[in-house]
Amino acid sequence: MDLFATALPALADAWALILQPIVLGYLVLGVVMGLAVGIFPGLGGIAGLSLLLPFMFGMEPVLGLALMIGMVAVVPTSDTFSSVLMGIPGSSASQATVLDGFPLARKGQAARALSAAFTASLFGGLVGALFLTLFIVIARPLVLAFGLPEMLMISILGLSMVAVLAGRVALKGLAAAGLGMLIGTIGIADAGGSLRMASYDFPYLTDGLQLVIVGLGIFAVPEIVSLLRQDRSIAKDASLGAGWMDGVRDWFEHKWLSIRCSLIGVLVGVIPGLGGSVVDWIAYGHAVQTTKDKSGFGKGEIRGVIGPESSNNAKEGGGLVPTLLFGIPGSGSMAIFIGAIALLGSGDIEVGPAMLRDNLDITYSIVWLLALANVVGTLLCIAVSGGIAKLTTIRFTYLAPFLFMLIAFAAFQSGQNFEDILALFAIGLIGIFLRRFDWSRPAFLIGFVLSNPVEKFSNQAFQIASFRFRKSFEEGIDYLFSPIVIVLLIVTVISVVLGLRQAKSIMAEGAVQSGSKRAPIVFLLVIMAYVVAALINANAIPDYNLTDKIVPLFIGGVTLVALLILLVQMILRPETDALFADKESAGEDADAPYGLWGTLAWFAGLIIATYFVGFILALAGFLVTFLRVRAQTPWGKTLVLAASGIALMCVMGGALNRDFPPGLLQEAATLPWPLT
Amino acid sequence: MTIKHLAASVAALAFAAAPAFAEVDFSGKTIEWVIPFSETGGSAKWANFFAPLLAQELPGQPTVVVKFMPGAGSTKGANWFQEQKHKDGTLLFGSSGSTQFPYLLSDPRVRYEYNDWIPVMATGTGGVAYLNPEDGANFDGSANGLKDVDLIFGSQGATGLDLVPLLAWKLLGMNVEPVFGIKGRGDGRLMFERGEATIDYQTSSGYISGAADLVAAGTAVPMMSWGALDEDGMIVRDPTFPDMPSFKEVCAATEGCETEGVAWDAWKAFFISGYPSQKIAFLPKETPQEVIDTYVAAFEAVRARPDFKEISSNEVGQYPMFVGEGAVKATHEATTVTPEAKAYVIDWLKTSYGVTIE
């Protein structure tokens, strides 16, 4: 009761703080800026907050908070646009949305998918805020109950979603996830500093690959290339079937799913160190498992959109708990947020254990500013969704060059290396072949995302457990098998068993015809060669750094076994078997008027030209040539479109104070911005 | 142009140049402050704090923007800065202990040379180690009662700033087992709060904002601060924590721990590099004197602000901010270590943690 005696007045104070016109004005300003940043794939809250940082110093705290929270809150809402419309995951929070959102757009139901997603986002954000209001004062013990074994189990639960998304051949899904995990281990190991599949002579790989690049490479590049080859609009008949009211109605029909996924979002978000990357997959898995007729998933099932979108905004609220109560950022944008709070006012708001005691009113303001920002952001998004959905009716050949431009820019922003763009291309190639031969791309991405947490938590939990075991056997067992771990273990086992049973009906890539044996076997052998190389490489790490080699060895071993079984099956089975799925043998890709390599060469051309003359000059040449030659656009229109593309890049680069990739020309001569 | 005109303009030039730095003017320019870490780290916070203050004090009130160039544990950004030469004084670089340690240890990734760079400002911090209450009860100002206990410490890696506490505990003869791979000291504190780690340390601001609450609640027992440097370069009690013994005092009270000799010197060298002169702002090589003077004057003006102490408490705390000559001296101390001390640390890293630096 003591709690309520302090919490209620603080809540009232918080509302008094928020409900001032000027505060709401700043909130709306932040929301609009967040929408502008979030709508571009690959640019998330980190880029947006960095933009605001210079203004935070000495600003009135509640105004600064309104501005920053407005921005952070809408990024997981607005990134839905690119997930649904283009099949490009806007950020790690909306990867699962792509699976069903994009097929809906291709059916001409983009507006419906968008408004269902936004309504779910809004609702998730509100449930999150409501839950936090009650929960935040007692959250501390819960957060502390999640030790390393518990976090490891949550990561494994996330990984178990691979079973649901594995596709028709479970072993292929497993191998794809294993490959994703192995690629996630590239670089300097966290624990002992050993290099894995990297060398100091080629420093780029020592930091590992960025999630932005892998997400764009695996999902965006293959979709863009495929659509471009077919030379049509995203929506099949270039018409919009369902309107935005249908989406709101859809959400209302599935409101209980939305509530459950929102709670999943808050609870997983509360646990520090996991962040948003698992939440949407767990929510997607939950949506699949609670749906009676599973045949629609992967082909445009609205529940597959509502589930992840309900969870990813709720997660933002949950993520505030470790940030505010412990001073531990749950994500990159939260880390900047903590730094920025210290700059506000006279710098006396300090997040951490004292936050609830000294600044409960500010804490509540943050929670409810987040909820309000969700409302404002969603309403704006729904308002424009009908119009933006029209993009799906445009001939894709006009969109493609600008999408290549955007993803190259986004990839470069992740590390500011030319190699970032090369990595995007390389991962894009992997994505294209995974898609072609029906190896589950979601499974690959889940593996990549969870590679680091699984390795880190298992190593650390193992070390601490061995200490406990040294003290006594019971203490070790108590540590490893806490009640939370046991519950999570049961949930994981159930979800794997159910998932495997259901996986056959969930085809993330749609139905794929089988073709000849040769191409799928060659691809399998290429993957196997990489896995073997990674195994040899990991095995070469000296034994005193066992922590750095054990996980790659184990994952590589499991993957290799799966691949070997697949190889044997491939040799034995006839070529009509589902094993030999090949998009080039029949269907849209096979019938496409343009070839794969010729289409991909356009993107390669942009990259090669960038290497020589820098991004902006290369882009100018690329846009003009592409629009003239490939799209057969008249000169006038070509020049207008190319100029507006370059203007967009310059405005974005200028506003975010980012450079563009330089080339050899820039090394030789000094050129004015933006050519530098 | 007549001779008279020419003479007049020469005279005018000479006159204008007389108060050397008055001529440097950054009006309408943008100064880039490059930080070799990501947007989310402590150095980002540090630069973002100083950037607007610096902008106000530089002549012409330029815009100061912080740019991030993370990669390879900050060596990527530092290697890049090594390639830069003076252009128009609009480039500033910020290094931290994580940039200094690889340099001191001759990490193979290091292609930069601190002696080429021109330091204009440096700030430092301190650190505090604390124990869980159970083992803390055995701490009596010496580590004698802690030698038979196995302690667990959540660590970011033995070659980073955690080198200083790990080496300190080793010198005290304690058995501290690091669990590597955590990100940030906040994660270390959380591990301690969950009871998984039994010993931890925080930098001063982290201790005050987070761990001090644990001490007040009785769930942590403070052990020692690393100390601070006095005018003569001796280690004294940290003025931020005057009631806490410094590591030097604890070492002196502990059997088998020497406050002189190779091991001590090695610890002290890395301590100075990682704490009292942790973050340093540099101008690139070949920067002309008047530009250097302009920056030094601007940072001096920042330091002289009447509200500086108040607004900087989070970033600088009660530690001196070095400017100009002071920063040069601090940089020298932060980046020099005797060959014996270096050999000692490299050998210790190899035998204890299997870390090899070739």
UniProtKB/TrEMBL annotation, chain A:
<feature type="transmembrane region" description="Helical">
    <location>
        <begin position="550"/>
        <end position="572"/>
    </location>
</feature>
<dbReference type="InterPro" id="IPR002823">
    <property type="entry name" value="DUF112_TM"/>
</dbReference>
<feature type="domain" description="DUF112">
    <location>
        <begin position="24"/>
        <end position="445"/>
    </location>
</feature>
<protein>
    <submittedName>
        <fullName>TctA family transporter</fullName>
    </submittedName>
</protein>
<feature type="transmembrane region" description="Helical">
    <location>
        <begin position="396"/>
        <end position="415"/>
    </location>
</feature>
<keyword id="KW-1133">Transmembrane helix</keyword>
<feature type="transmembrane region" description="Helical">
    <location>
        <begin position="479"/>
        <end position="500"/>
    </location>
</feature>
<feature type="transmembrane region" description="Helical">
    <location>
        <begin position="209"/>
        <end position="228"/>
    </location>
</feature>
<feature type="transmembrane region" description="Helical">
    <location>
        <begin position="600"/>
        <end position="627"/>
    </location>
</feature>
<feature type="transmembrane region" description="Helical">
    <location>
        <begin position="51"/>
        <end position="75"/>
    </location>
</feature>
<keyword id="KW-0472">Membrane</keyword>
<keyword id="KW-0812">Transmembrane</keyword>
<feature type="transmembrane region" description="Helical">
    <location>
        <begin position="366"/>
        <end position="389"/>
    </location>
</feature>
<feature type="transmembrane region" description="Helical">
    <location>
        <begin position="639"/>
        <end position="656"/>
    </location>
</feature>
<feature type="transmembrane region" description="Helical">
    <location>
        <begin position="144"/>
        <end position="166"/>
    </location>
</feature>
<feature type="transmembrane region" description="Helical">
    <location>
        <begin position="520"/>
        <end position="538"/>
    </location>
</feature>
<feature type="transmembrane region" description="Helical">
    <location>
        <begin position="324"/>
        <end position="346"/>
    </location>
</feature>
<dbReference type="Pfam" id="PF01970">
    <property type="entry name" value="TctA"/>
</dbReference>
<feature type="transmembrane region" description="Helical">
    <location>
        <begin position="173"/>
        <end position="189"/>
    </location>
</feature>
<feature type="transmembrane region" description="Helical">
    <location>
        <begin position="26"/>
        <end position="44"/>
    </location>
</feature>
<feature type="transmembrane region" description="Helical">
    <location>
        <begin position="114"/>
        <end position="138"/>
    </location>
</feature>
UniProtKB/TrEMBL annotation, chain B:
<protein>
    <submittedName>
        <fullName>Tripartite-type tricarboxylate transporter receptor subunit TctC</fullName>
    </submittedName>
</protein>
<dbReference type="InterPro" id="IPR042100">
    <property type="entry name" value="Bug_dom1"/>
</dbReference>
<keyword id="KW-0675">Receptor</keyword>
<comment type="similarity">
    <text>Belongs to the UPF0065 (bug) family.</text>
</comment>
<dbReference type="InterPro" id="IPR005064">
    <property type="entry name" value="BUG"/>
</dbReference>
<keyword id="KW-0732">Signal</keyword>
<feature type="signal peptide">
    <location>
        <begin position="1"/>
        <end position="22"/>
    </location>
</feature>
